Backbone:
């Protein structure tokens, strides 16, 4: 009988899909930050196309991110919430959850807010999104190192 390791609410495919969606959000966010909409009239047609494509992909990726949160994050939180034996890992997970929630609220403010709110929220949303992968990697670094069980296979 094959021994399975405890996945803490995450399957390999779900984890990889969530990581891919987060990478798409990060890359498209950087493109939109580097090519701000306020400079659209001065952009070349190629730059304007990249800016537009990044906005569309960012929006679609946000929708996929919400699906992946329901598929992976909430089951993970449900399983791990009371397992606080590794304090630092648990704290990083909580920080990641709070950071993602604030980024999501900032995204809603950018999408539906007034222009004044947009000017205030845009840099905050970007920089929090830029820091989020570091918190994610700090929380999940063990996932990228093969376990002794996998090395023996």
Residues:
């Amino acid at each position: 009988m094959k021994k399975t390791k405890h996945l803490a609410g995450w399957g390999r495919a779900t984890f990889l899909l969530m990581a891919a969606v987060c990478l798409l959000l990060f890359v498209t966010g950087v493109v939109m930050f580097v090519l701000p909409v306020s400079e659209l009239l001065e952009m070349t047609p190629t730059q304007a196309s990249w800016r537009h494509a990044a906005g569309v992909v960012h929006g679609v990726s946000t929708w996929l991110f919400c699906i992946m949160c329901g598929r992976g994050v909430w089951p993970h939180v449900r399983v791990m919430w009371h397992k606080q034996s590794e304090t630092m890992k648990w704290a990083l997970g909580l920080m990641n959850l709070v950071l993602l929630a604030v980024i999501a609220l900032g995204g809603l403010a950018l999408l539906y807010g007034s222009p004044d709110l947009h000017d205030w929220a845009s840099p905050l949303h970007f920089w929090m999104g830029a820091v989020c992968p570091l918190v994610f990697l700090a929380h999940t670094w063990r996932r990228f190192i093969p376990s002794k069980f996998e090395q023996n296979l």
